[in-house]
Structure formats: structure tokens, C-alpha cells
Amino acid sequence: MSTTPVPSFDDPAGTWNRRFAESGYLFGSEPNAWLREHASVWSPGARVLSVADGEGRNSVWLASRGLVVDAFDIAEVGVAKARQLATERCVTVNFAVADCDSYGWPEATYDGVAAIFVQFADPAMRERLFVHIVQSLKPGGTLVLQGYTPKQLEYRTGGPPLASHLYTEALLRAAFADLEIVVLREYEAEVAEGSAHRGHSALIGLVARRR
């Protein structure tokens, strides 16, 4: 069970900078399993955005598959570690320090968006974020998303201890009603992603395509 503190929603940048300043990688340096399973929806050369990318585990892996990757995170310490990881693995990622509101979302630009455990966002920010994601996808572009469901509050093996920040199937169907739902699955699994996501977890995964 994870015993790491949850981020402060009063000072998210400061909190994440402090967490990422610790040695090692908070969520590990390997990609998320749901992303790994579904990344084949994007072909080499496709342009993909990794949202709230942290220390780079997902963006760097996507770049290693021949994708053209943009990534952002609110924490400059995390982005610095992500740049170092990219250098070590001899890949290029276009990193930016930004939050979900200040990132310069381009319209109808991305072949794909990866949004993995972006659950610091309260309902109002989440609504804005999801709108940005949809608008940034090209027609035919695909979103790959993973999060925790409210049942995760029983397990406490990662994620915020706030039901309002967690995902349900109904919430995701409503938020992405303008997309074609390819896969939407609630499930439980053992997660081993660094020290912050570790143990039996209540998960939901989505793959959806812009029409």
C-alpha cells in the first residue's frame, strides 16, 4: 500500500516539485500498463501529447516507439527529470512546464493524447481539460486515458482520496460523448508504478477516437 502523501490542491506546483525532488522516480521510469497495451493505435510518425507527464515515463516511452511527442507538466522539477530520462534513452520529446489551463493547446493537431492518472484536477478543471483534449485531437485522433474509480478509496494504493476527482464509466461517457468510444473498461489489477502507485487498485481505462 502506498503511504506517500497526496498532492496539496492549494499549491499543486510546489507540492509536485517537492515530491519529484526525491531521489528516483515517484511513479517509476517505465510506461503505464494501459498505455503500453493500447499505444498501437498510433503509428510511428504520429504526433501525440502526453498530459501532466510528470518525470517523463510515458512520453519518453512513446518517443522510443517513433512517435513525435509533446508533453507538459506543472512541476519544473519533474520536467527536468523527464528531459534527463529522454537524454539517457536517446529520444526527443518537446517538453513544456505548464498546467492544464496554461498549456497552449493547439486545435485539431494531435493524432493522439495520452492522459494517464490526471486526477489532481477538480471537477471544474477536469471539465476544461477534457474539452481541451477533444479539441486538440485531429479527426481520427485517439485518446488513451486511465484513472482510478471511486472504489480506489477502499484500497488507497494511489491517487487522491477525493471521490470528486475519480472517474466512473458514466462520467467518461458524458465527457467524451463527441468521441467514438473504442474501449471503456472498469477493472481491478495489481499496479507497480514506483512508490506512489503500488498495490491492488480499482482502475478504469478508455480509448476513444475523434470522429
Q: Which structural class fits the helix and strand makeup?
A: alpha/beta
* Distance from first to last alpha carbon: 40 Å
- Overall mean confidence score, pLDDT: 95
One letter per element, helices H and strands E, the order comes to: HHEHEHEEHEHHEE
Major sheet attributes: 7 strands, mixed
Give me the count of strands: 7
CATH class: Alpha Beta
Using only C-alpha atoms, the radius of gyration works out to 16 Å
Strand coverage percent: 25-35%
Please indicate the count of domains: 1
What CATH calls the topology is Rossmann fold
- Low-pLDDT residue spans: 1-7
Q: State the helicity in percent bands.
A: 25-40%
Number of helices: 7
Apparent shape? globular
CATH architecture: 3-Layer(aba) Sandwich
How would you describe the oligomerization state of the chains in this entry?
A: single chain
Looking at CATH, the homologous superfamily is: Vaccinia Virus protein VP39
Spatial strand order of the main sheet: 3-2-1-4-5-7-6
Q: Which key phrases capture this entry?
A:
single chain, 211 residues, alpha/beta, Rossmann fold, seven-stranded mixed sheet, 7 helices, 7 strands, disordered N terminus
Report on the structure:
With 211 residues, the protein is of the alpha/beta class. Helices cover 29% and strands 30% of the residues. Helix 3 links the parallel strand 1 and strand 2. Helix 1 (12-20) runs parallel beside helix 4 (76-88). It starts with 11 loop residues before the first helix and ends with a strand.
